[in-house]
Amino acid sequence: MNFIYKIFNNNVDETVHKQFSRFGKGTYEGRALVFLTKGKNSFKVKTSFEFANDFIFLIASKIPGQFDVSGKIVASYDFLSSLSFESASYAKRGSFYTAEISRSLSSFELLSLYDKFKLHFLFLQIKGEGVQFRSKASLPKPGGSLKAGFCSATLPSSLLSFFAFDFSFSKKAEISHTYVITELVVLTSLDSVHAREAAQRKGKILRNVVADGTTNTKETELLV
C-alpha cells in the first residue's frame, strides 16, 4: 500500500522514513494530495509527487502483464552497472545520476525495478492493458506549494482502495494531509549530517477527506 496507508496502519518501513527525512520540526500543510474521480470500471487519480514510486509498486504488484515503460530513474549514487537492461542515456546532473529508459517490461521486471530504486526516484510513464500512468520528469522546487497533477493515472476500479482505504464515495474525492512534527528523535552515535537523516520524526498527521462534498478529518500519531 502507499506510504500514508502504512502510517495509519502502523506499518512504517524505510520507504515511509525516506518520505520524511527532509522535514524538520514544524507544521506542513497541503501534503500528499490525492484527487479521485470514479468511472464505470475504472477511476482517474491525480496526486502530488510523493506518490510517484508508490504508483510503480501498485501497478507492478497488482496488474500482471507487459507494459511500455519510459522516463527517468534518478538516484544519488552511480547505478549504471546495476541496471539489468541498457538505458537510452545516462548522465550525472548535479549531485544526482539519471538514466533515461524506454522499453517493454513485464510486471515482474517492473517490480524488480521498484525494489532496486524504491528509496530513490522513479519518474516514469507506463502504458498497458487497462493502465495509463504518467509522472512529471523532475522534482518540484523546494519550498513551493504542491499540486495534485505531478502524477496522473487511469486504473481499474479494483485498485481504488489503494488511495481510498478508509472511506467510500460515489463520484469525486479530494484528500490532503497535514504533517505536525514536534520532535526529532536523534541517534547520538551518528555525526550531525547522518543523525538528521536517520532521525525519527515524531508528531501527528491529519488526513482531510472531502468525498462527494462531505468533509471528514482523521488523525494518527506520527513516528517515522
Shape: globular
Kindly estimate the percentage of residues that lie in beta strands according to DSSP.
35-45%
Distance between the first and last residues' Cα? 16 Å
Low-confidence stretches: none
The total count of strands amounts to 11
The string of secondary-structure elements, in order, is HHEEHEEEHEEEEHEE
Overview of the molecule:
It is a single chain. This protein has an eleven-stranded antiparallel sheet with strand order 4-5-3-6-7-8-2-1-9-10-11. With 224 residues, it is an alpha+beta fold. The model has no long low-confidence stretch (mean pLDDT 94). The chain has five helices and eleven strands. It has two domains: 1-39 and 158-224, no CATH class; 49-139. Helix 3 packs antiparallel against helix 4 (107-117). The chain has helices at residues 3-8, 14-20, 52-62, 107-117, 192-198; strands at residues 26-38, 42-47, 66-75, 89-93, 96-106, 121-128, 131-135, 151-156, 172-185, 200-211, 214-223.
List keywords for this structure.
5 helices; globular; alpha+beta; 2 domains; single chain; eleven-stranded antiparallel β-sheet; 224 residues
